[in-house]
Amino acid sequence: MADYNHSEIENKWQKYWQDQKTFEAHVDTSKPKFYALDMFPYPSGAGLHVGHPLGYIASDIISRYKRNKGFNVLHPMGFDAFGLPAEQYAIQTGQHPAITTEENIARYKEQLKNIGFSFDWSKEVRTCDADYYKWTQWIFIQLFNAWYDQSQQKARPIDDLVAIFASEGNKSVQAACDEDTVSFTAAEWKGYSEKEQQETLLKYRLTYLSETSVNWCAELGTVLSNDEVKDGFSERGGHPVVKKLMKQWSMRITAYAERLLDGLDQLDWSEPLKEMQRNWIGKSQGAEMTMDIEGHDDKITVFTTRIDTVYGVSFLVLAPELDLIKKITTDEQRAEVEAYVEVAKNISERDRMTNVKKVSGAFTGAYAINPFSGEKIPVWIADYVLAGYGTGAVMAVPGGDQRDYDFAKHFDLPILPVYEGMDVSKEADATKEGKIINEGILKGLTFQEATDKATAFLEEKGIGSGKINYRIRNAIFARQRYWGEPVPVYFKDGIPYPVATEDLPIVLPEIDKYLPTEDGDPPLARAENYTYTPKGENTAYPLELSTMPGWAGSSWYWYRYMDANNSDAFVDNDVQKYWKDVDLYIGGTEHATGHLLYSRFWNKFLFDMGFVQEEEPFKKLVNQGMIQGRSNFVYRVKGTNQFVSLNKQSEYDCTPMHVNVSLVDNDVLDTDAFKAWRPDLADAEFILEDGKYVCGYEVEKMSKSKYNVVNPDDIIEKYGADTLRMYEMFLGPLEQFKPWNTHGIDGVSKFLRKAWRLFHDEQNEWNVSDDKATPEELKILHKAIKKIEEDINNLSLNTSVSTLMIAVNDLTALKCNKREILENLTVILSPFAPHISEELWEKLGHSEGISQVAFPAFDESLLVENNHEYPVSINGKVRTKISYPVDMDKGEIEKSVLADETVVKWTEGKAPKKVIIVPKRIINIVL
User: Fold this and answer.
1) Which residues contact residue 372 at a Cβ distance below 8 angstroms, ignoring those fewer than 6 apart?
2) pLDDT in tens, 86-130
3) Alpha-carbon distance 238 to 204, whole Å?
4) N- or C-end of the chain: fewer Cβ atoms within 10 A?
5) pTM of the complete model
6) Which residues contact 829 (CB under 8 A, 6 or more apart)?
7) What are phi and psi of 658, to 5 degrees?
8) Helix H or strand E segment including 918
9) Rg of the chain over CA atoms, in angstroms?
10) Which regions in the chain score pLDDT beneath 50?
């Protein structure tokens, strides 16, 4: 019989799983369900490196374990296939992005299948398939045809709102809507033209078109999110980005801000992840106040969480983007202000929020009037105020806010203490203790008294009120790109109307090239006859030319996995009632404030409208850590092609150089392979140590530029997929960052071979006995069963691997080959190393696959200790150890221990003064 051949075994079982459709999941109400989901990948041309499968391996282990525990498991995989990289490649080469995407997906699928994942490939989804994005378009239309009723705290059909308008106008309507929405009566509504009514409804719809300040990148020809901009340049490509007002589709996620916050309390997510969402939503309790501007009819409205400090205001700050600035800036200050605005608009909001050390601003020359004190307050602009947060205006209280304090110090503006005992000589003091010292209606009041009185004053004077504010902004939902979902909207008299749902999908049209037109229109303007004719009409209306953003298709994909081939609904109602929601979701923290917020928003909307059963989509979420690269370095003598080994480099003037890690084994360089690596190294010379070239190393992010990317294909070819799977888990806790180090992979490979040899004799012939297992063998097995169950349920998968290694070592030491032990050992090994386990299971005589086998039950009684090994001390020194039954009488123990040969030797036959026996602890003989 041949030795353990991982390639042959893994190919065999991967084909078996595919042919037998082993992992296809269907509704089965006789079983409990378990839905394991991975954040699906964007298929890049580079393929997978060993860091990518980490979370997939963890979810696969859990999925396989749950099947063994009797669950009906849905474990799908698909591809987030729209996106900028494929489009940029299309622009450069002229090749359609669909071709590039298809090639990349094929490469990913090949790699994923080689690792032996138990994915249900029959439910694969690709966001770029028309059969999929038909339903993304359908959800868009549902959002377009809905509004958010704040009195009921839920979304409702837009037809309900139209009926309210027709019967009573909008004065009593509590809805999420645009700030500039005017009130009207039922009669006025009925008198509106069709266009006027539709324009009004756009102010209420959950997806709507409006003039919005966006990050515009002319080189990429698209709007970018704040996260895609760094220091005024696009993160992809490093192209200039400017602020620009554009008509854009947006989603009214702000309507759900409070529910998004409240929902976090129900979720089994890490606290740091929840806190990231809380901070992003940014709930603030405060007040809005309107202030007159000297010499102008315009007013400034500020939002503040500290209305109690209103007498400490020494200046106002406006966001540079506000249109009001042009109106109120004096001629003397105009050049300075315009120059400042030009610079500020090229800085991303993310950078403006984080760059707290840099102080900059410009004085407009205008003054606002503090309605409490009547004093004139200078109005400045500064980039630390954001147009999208609150009103874009801040009442600056430098005595109580450090950023205001730094600004005031820089521009020599007054810094006024507010509460008694405040020391503002060196920094701001945000105290709320004591009583207010400023002259006015709040003098002598405590924080809460002042807050209540100031808010009442605002409401009494009709210049403000108490208000809850959120940092989160409505999400821009458009890209001026080609490779994305078409927006299912056409324009009639300049007003957007949704396409009829029965006419979906609006398919992405063919175009001649993937760039904006010469007039600056999005690429879809290049399509011929890109129009829509509604039923019953003869006119072809223009379709929306923007496409949806990258997050559109990923905001609902877990539902499509449940029922991926349904052409009549995004998911069948009965199917969705069974699978409900995701039981375990694994992915990276980089999606905390993007994908996870948008997904929760869409899910809550679908729940409101009765399309799904659960309000939250992901019950439990785990962020896997990153596997970092282990870079290697060679040391080149400056000005030469001579390379010095690590421990000799101090003798030379050397420059470190990254070297491809595939040329290095345990930090020893293959010098011949190195010389063949690049033409310029063909004549390289080496100064060795002990006959070999030792490289330096450093732990860094895996990157092609650092030559430290490890391809899983190479690991699988050399060691096997089971070794890769177990080694990635063995590296450390799932949530932590850990370096890839091939030094340890040999140990995992040897472990699997040792497990294989338990079933074979020294000639590698099958050798499994039907003899009854000994208590010691059963104890080893059940100790492992207990620990592995606990570890899997706690996602402590690294310690599960250690447990399996210990069990195999202990059984090997006992030369155990008992079927009673080895069958159960094979089952508990199978979630981690499924290929070798399937092979051994078959050789044990079973016809059914190991995925269908029940996980062995843990028997507590087998771990009960019947004997205890007592250390025996004579006059305080341990001289021997003797094992006695735990229930043995003390008198019997004393007789036995005094008769023991070793004890007799050390007592020299003398009668002891005292024999102390502590049950299950120690025996102490005092002479």
Assistant:
1) 310, 311, 440, 441, 442, 454, 457
2) 888 888 888 999 999 999 999 999 999 999 999 999 999 999 999
3) 37
4) N
5) 0.86
6) 755, 804, 836, 837
7) -60, 140
8) strand 914-918
9) 35
10) 1
